[in-house]
TrEMBL record:
InterPro entries: Cell_wall/Cho-bd_repeat. Keywords: Repeat, Signal. Gene3D superfamilies: Cholin Binding, Multimodular pneumococcal cell wall endolysin, domain 3. The keyword Signal applies. This is Putative cell wall binding repeat-containing protein. The keyword Signal applies. It holds the Pfam family Choline_bind_1. Residues 1-26 form the signal peptide. Cell wall-binding repeats lie at residues 73-92, 188-207, 209-228.
Length: 254
């Protein structure tokens, strides 16, 4: 009996050693983006998985890791030279950026952490539409966040969770900047059309916003994001102004 107990203890220790978890990550908690986070509670482990160690695929297509009958949760796992992270519910993070120890880490479709320096593309689907997010990796699995990036004499900006800003304006240090479809800051003076919306550039990457603009005796208005108001009514200082499809105000002197 003693020999059998000793064998079981040794076997359990060997199986735990097979899972490589760095001590600095061992107590990590994850705060994940809600696009991929799940809060489903696992059912009680049945006999078929009680002695299992390794990856298992859940019924919803997600992946978890069982170590001798217990789900790994809020842990890093190194498998075949690649790093993975299991969230607080035991689900493997994948195909997005997630906060782990308050740092934004990026994972590919297989769940492997992406240790690349430079631009990284993540495809996703929103409301049936295929879309793309770009991130800039630091080479250690994390991505740059709230930073300007100068590449090939062009300026880019990455914001919350490291997402590159594109096809819209963004406020950086109280100034409103405009970025084109490829994410490049638009340094043009005058009217600029981005993704079907008109802005008025100052020539330094910023756009006019929250202000009237008079050109050729026609009044236009740029809202908080710098978008030209058109084909609509808009309230400014408690007065309702009307704008035609070209953006011209129809009652500027009310």
């Amino acid at each position: 009996m003693k020999n059998n107990k000793i064998k079981k203890i040794i076997l359990s220790a060997l199986m735990m050693a097979a899972i490589s978890i760095p001590t600095s990550y061992a107590s990590s908690n994850v705060d994940s983006q809600n696009v991929n986070t799940k809060s489903i509670q696992f059912k009680t482990i049945d006999e078929s998985t009680r002695s299992k160690t390794g990856w298992i695929k859940n019924s919803d297509g997600s992946w978890s890791y069982i170590n001798y009958g217990s789900y790994l949760k809020s842990k890093w796992l190194k498998d075949s030279g690649k790093w993975y992270y299991l969230d607080e519910s035991g689900y493997m993070l994948r195909d997005d950026v997630f906060l782990v120890d308050n740092k934004p880490y990026i994972f590919d479709k297989s769940g492997a952490m992406i240790e690349k320096y430079g631009w990284i593309k993540i495809d996703y689907v929103l409301d049936g539409e295929n879309l793309v997010n770009w991130f800039y990796g630091n080479g250690d699995g994390t991505v740059k966040e709230f930073q300007w990036i100068l590449e090939n004499n062009k300026w880019y900006y990455v914001e919350d969770f490291g997402v590159m800003v594109s096809k819209r304006s963004a406020v950086v240090k109280d100034k409103t900047y405009l970025f084109d479809y490829s994410g490049v800051m638009v340094e043009k003076k005058g009217w600029i059309s981005v993704d079907g919306t008109w802005y008025y550039g100052n020539g330094d990457g910023t756009v006019k916003n929250n202000q009237w603009l008079q050109l050729n005796n026609i009044w236009y208005y740029l809202d908080e994001e710098g978008k030209m108001i058109s084909d609509n009514s808009y309230t400014i200082n408690n007065k309702v102004y009307k704008f035609d499809k070209s953006g011209a105000c129809l009652n500027p002197y009310i």
